[in-house]
Amino acid sequence: MKNQEIFRKSIEKSHSYIEYRTLLKSLLSQGKSSGSEQSEALLHYSELNDTRMNRLDKTISIPTENVEKLKQLENEQIWLVISEGWCGDAAQILPVINKMAEQNTKINLRIVFRDENDELMQLFLTNGTRSIPKLIVLDKDTLEFITDFGPRPNAAKKLILDYKAQHGIVDETAKTELQLWYLHDKGLSTQNEILEAIETKLLSQKSLE
Asked: Cα–Cα–Cα angle for 86, 90, 95, nearest 5°?
């Protein structure tokens, strides 16, 4: 029950997608990034990400087969995303998740800031790190955990792991290669992996009934 209490507290502090974007723009107008740490680099990334998200909000589309899969979701769900404005992966993935959520009124997308929700983040560490974004899919009525996704699609994870294995670090070149991968992928891997995770979990639940 403790996890559901953490989910509940985080949802109470959460924002809609529009509220999240508005908050980030307000911080940028004050020369700030989101999160507990402030630096020129984080501000620079936040500004880049705002531009990226503006573009993706206009260009991301959901293929018909994925629209159909989303519309077939019967139970009301909360899609709770842990994010920050300076995170390049979040800037690429959140607009996709938002477009997916718009396809079915049973999906309620809520976004929380990582540094304000450490208890929640600690439940969804990636190899011991507080990597974001992280999508947590919950049953709306019970707040029962269904599945999660993140911090990036599998092919993007592999790209970074391979680069780090070859060069020993994740530098600006690696980040540029990652952004180019997202550009070419057009959000399809994110959509497919989220849908596959949800379908797999819901099918396994039905088989147990």
From this structure: 120
Q: Which residue has the tokens 């929380």?
A: 112
Other C-beta atoms closer than 10 Å to the C-beta of 175 total: 15
Each residue of 73-110: pLDDT tens digit? Answer: 989 999 999 999 999 999 999 999 999 999 999 999 99
- 3-state DSSP assignment of residue 136: strand
Q: Token pair for residue 196?
A: 């596959």
In the chain the domains, ranked by start, together with CATH numbers, are: 2-208 (3.40.30.10)
The predicted structure's pLDDT at residue 1? 56
Are residues 153 and 191 in contact, defined by beta-carbon separation less than 8 angstroms?
A: no
Angle between helices 17-29 and 40-59 (to 10 degrees): 140
Does an H or E element contain 98, and which?
Answer: helix 88-101
Q: Do the beta carbons of residue 93 and residue 44 sit within 8 Å?
A: no
Q: Residues of the chain with pLDDT > 70: what percent?
A: 97
Residues 128-145: tens digit of each pLDDT: 999 999 999 999 999 999
